[in-house]
């Protein structure tokens, strides 16, 4: 499971803004956010870069967490609201 949607929303970034920054169509980004498709390393880097350019402050491992067994399971959604400070600085 990735945290693209949670980090994007926590930073106040719309899906439309992120997909425009990436120059992707909406369905591609939506599929990645929903976990229906898994991005490759280059796409993952592009997503993180675009999130940071749009105001988030996150790293690859924040958006695409890795555990000892690989990517976190799709059912492991955690409350990422705690990763974003109220003062506007993102800590993800």
From TrEMBL:
Coiled coil, from the record: none
Organism: Pseudomonas muyukensis
Identification of the protein by name: Helix-turn-helix domain-containing protein
Alphabetical list of PROSITE patterns matching this protein: HTH_CROC1 (PS50943)
Residues of the HTH cro/C1-type domain: 4-52
Top-level taxon in the UniProt lineage: Bacteria
Signal sequence extent: none
Pfam families: HTH_3 (PF01381)
InterPro entries, per database record: Cro/C1-type_HTH
